[in-house]
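User: My instructor asked us to take a sequence, write out its structure as tokens, and then describe one feature of it. I'm not sure where to start. Here is the sequence I was given:
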Amino acid sequence: MLMRSPIRLLAVSVAGITLVCAMPRGQQQAQAISSEADQQQILSRVRAYAERYVANLPNFVCDLETRQFQAGKKAKHWHKGDTLISRLTFNAGREEHTLEKVNDRPVRTQSRRLFQPLVTEGEFGMLMQGVFAPASAAAFTWVGLENLEGRRVGVFQYAIDQQHSNVSLSLDDTKKDYLPYHGSIYADPETGAIWRITSIPTDFPDELLTKSLSTVIDYDRVDIAGRDYLLPIAARVALETPTRNDRNELEFRNYRKFEAKSRITYASADDGGSGSADNLVGRPGAPPEE
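Assistant: Let's start with the prediction itself. The structure tokens for your sequence are:
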């Protein structure tokens, strides 16, 4: 469902004035996309891209660096915590993390207990699939055209209510709630390829001791075995509680093909494993030509 933004016409007219002299062709494109029919066409492309994203991903391995930051109640002074290096394996639609280093030291040499106030996983497509799943009944609003890292992208806002949400938050494995959430999607208007997606859950129950939570995932071209894919290169997750703030900055690098001869054993759901694709959050075919 595509909803009209109450400020859309004003935003388009302002953009038009800006583009009149510098980019007359861009002005015409922006005005054309202001029609609801064109917006629906772009949204259909983005939906098709998201629906096939995980199924088209190759099996791969990459290195994931997670930099942890903590602050007090006001979030004014941030302190750097641990830096974690994990081996992330994606195989047959399933994701597995293996922690290898903490602050450049192998895990096996660590004597202290590792403190991870904020643990995230599943950046490889399930967020975008969840947003566009029919069961989510998401409402979409066209925002307009923007420039993202030098690329012209179409931006949609989305919102999913609690009844249709597939996003959950748990506290110490004792309390779990599904939450309504909203966010933005930045996509190529011609191909539907998603370059950035955000997620912001709301309406946290008091017992979850959470005031806010936000996720931003950025994608870019990555070569795996001589073929280009759009894969996560960076993500940022921020959590605010009544007493503290936590932030994880994630960097994905050194992508390489996962060889079939390698062996991975996934924990079952009864064992509390996280290998199921149902627990993931965020190959498109080849990335759009430029």
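For the description part of your assignment, you could build on this observation: Confidence is low (pLDDT under 50) at residues 4-28, 263-290. Try explaining in your own words what that tells you about the chain.
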